Amino acid sequence: MKHIDNKIVIYFLCGALFLGACNKSQAPSVLENGSERQTYPLVLQDNEAPGENLAEKIQELSVYHFSNGKFYLKQQLKPNEKGEIAVSAAGGSRLYFISGIPFSLSGETIDEENFRNIAVGRDLHDNSAPEFMTAVVDLGNDTETRGGGDPRTVSLKRSVARLDIDASTDSKIRISEVLVENAPAEIYPFREGQQASKETITYRKVFETAVGGKLESVFRIFESAQPVHLVLLGSYDDAPLRLKLELPTVECNKVYAVEVRNSGAMIEGVVEVKPWDEGGTVVGSPDAGNRIVLDAARSRFPAGVKVDYQNNLIEVPAEGAAGMKLAFLGDSRIDIDSVEGLDPDVTLSGVSVSEEPDGGFVSMFDASVAAQGRGRLGYSVLVHLKSALTQLSYDYVEIRVAPSEHQIETVEMGGLTWMAFNARTHDLEDQVYPLDGLTVEEMYRESWINTIGGLFQFGRLYMYVPWQGYNPSNNLGNQTQDAPWIHDTHMPCPEGYRVPTRAEWRAILPASAQIPGNYTTATGEQITATLHVANGTLVTPTGVTGTQRYVKLSVDGTDRFLIFPMAGYKGDKSTSNNPNFGNWALMWTNDRTGCPGGYAWLRRLSFSAATNSLSLIDEYQWQMEGFAYVRCVKK
């Protein structure tokens, strides 16, 4: 709290009705300007609920008296059961009432302007702004209210806003966390609409169990002339939900009711501002007529783009879309307030505005979306809109881009969905994909070196490719180990995939299998296992050579098959960059059970030149600092 350095002498009036304790000093009965003090009976009432008795809410309030711009008296008053107080003041005075927070003065003199510049709020926040009430009353020089006349009214106003959340429109909407960002840390109690300082504060409320329905009084917020941001985290039908809204300004004594609703194609948040009336309904249904919606007649979209005009949803195919024109017809200009999730492949122009001959304005901006690359997941860009005329009219357009048609190739076997190629990194776009015009098997046969993925240490993320350039490091990037692999920050599988267990490897590659030969998986699938050598001569940048062998496991009677390249391994302290292509395949499991310190289990395949077959299929305890391959399964 800021204090005025000058001291003032504070007088307490004895003998007035409903006052607290008095000191021995007496305020002058006649001021320097000749005004005499009189007793004014006053009644406290809620600014937004006239007639409501505030006696239960206001236990005590401070009253500061000013005459001709100069302070002359402070009183501490307690209302009676009817909410009545009696103030002894000079005619023509201005009285400042405040209740609910500590507020004090020190110094001998203070003028009214400096008094109004006192800020409060610092150190009073308890994950929410403190709620307090203020009023300013001008006493005329009339005599109607003196000496027991009809009471005047002191209309107290809350000096904070209230945030409510309504997620009752759909039972599938659950809120787990709410944040308020850039909320003012201080406020002038008696200067409405003016920012006390640039200092801001963040509020955060986490619900141990996600909640739905109506949540009242989630936060109190000081009034703000600057934008305040709201972030809601939760889920819709178990899918992650994140909404970010902006309040351009915050007015005191208002309720900001955020309604989270499912409009059919998207989850949206709508903010409604209502007076703070404790005796009435604080949250109502948003006025659908105030929505900002795409104008079908004036918008332009290329072939292949699907548009839901009512819900502002634009669905762009993986091929992308150039030259889209988004138009909005309204009584005022529509601006882009903010953009969420903007991708480098999405470009937006500025908003152009034209006036219609029949009235109204057309606001328009261009949007283009580049074609998806290989392996790109689908994504959404939210363009938040606001009306220039109606400050609290907000909406957004969602540009939803379809996933790449070249998604990860997968195969179902042993009750799991396996990636068709070894992993390379955690990045979806950096996985192995068939080259244009080639199938999965043709990739192994015609481009073997590009199918084998990378080598990894157990529990670590970074890939090692010794045949591209030798690096003897036993820990690329000085990584910590996640043993076993649990967190995506360490797992070299793309989003939605994980490292398989020992049992899952055994299910499709039992130790009893004969390759070439036939066997049965743990889930009863009949497998025909064959051994192949890829076409062409192996060429690597470092001159590493070997035989481009691979094993193919085909499910009889189906077109399903898994291929594993015999791509070798690298020991942790090996000085060679030759992974022994064609003779071994070491594949990590996600298990260390029963292993000594520093070791984990892998699945090992060994080729025998003497029999032209696999001589070994087993589990092996491999040093975690050693390098082996990773084949991922879907979570």
Could you say which overall geometry the principal axes of the C-alpha atoms support?
A: elongated
* Low-pLDDT segments, ≥5 res: 1-26, 142-149, 278-289
Helix content: under 10%
State the assembly state of the protein chains. single chain
Give the percentage of residues in beta strands.
35-45%
Largest beta sheet, briefly?
8 strands, mixed
Number of strands: 37
The total number of structural domains is 4
Judged by helices, strands and strand pairing, the structural class is mainly beta
Mean pLDDT: 83
What does this structure look like?
It contains three helices and 37 strands. The chain has four domains: 7-157, Immunoglobulin-like, CATH 2.60.40.2580; 160-286, Sandwich (Immunoglobulin-like), CATH 2.60.40; 306-401, Sandwich (Immunoglobulin-like); 410-634, no CATH class. Helix content is 3%, strand content 40%. Strands 2, 3, 4, 5, 6, 7, 8 and 9 form an eight-stranded mixed sheet that branches. It has a five-stranded mixed sheet with strand order 18-19-26-25-21, with no helix packed on it. It has a four-stranded mixed sheet with strand order 13-10-16-17, with no helix packed on it. The protein is elongated and about 120 Å long.
Helix and strand arrangement:
Elements (H helix, E strand, L loop, with lengths): L6 E2 L28 E10 L2 E5 L7 E7 L2 E8 L6 E7 L3 E6 L12 H5 L16 E6 L13 E7 L1 E8 L5 E12 L15 E12 L1 E10 L5 E9 L2 E9 L6 E9 L4 E9 L30 E3 L4 E4 L4 E10 L3 E7 L5 E3 L3 E4 L5 E9 L9 E9 L6 E8 L8 E4 L2 E4 L20 H7 L50 E2 L3 H7 L8 E4 L5 E8 L15 E7 L5 E5 L18 E5 L10 E10 L4 E11 L9 E2 L1
Parallel strand pairs: 2-9, 10-16, 19-26
Antiparallel strand pairs: 2-3, 2-6, 4-5, 4-7, 7-8, 8-9, 10-13, 11-12, 11-14, 14-15, 16-17, 18-19, 20-24, 21-25, 22-24, 23-24, 25-26, 27-28, 29-37, 30-31, 31-32, 32-33, 34-35, 35-36
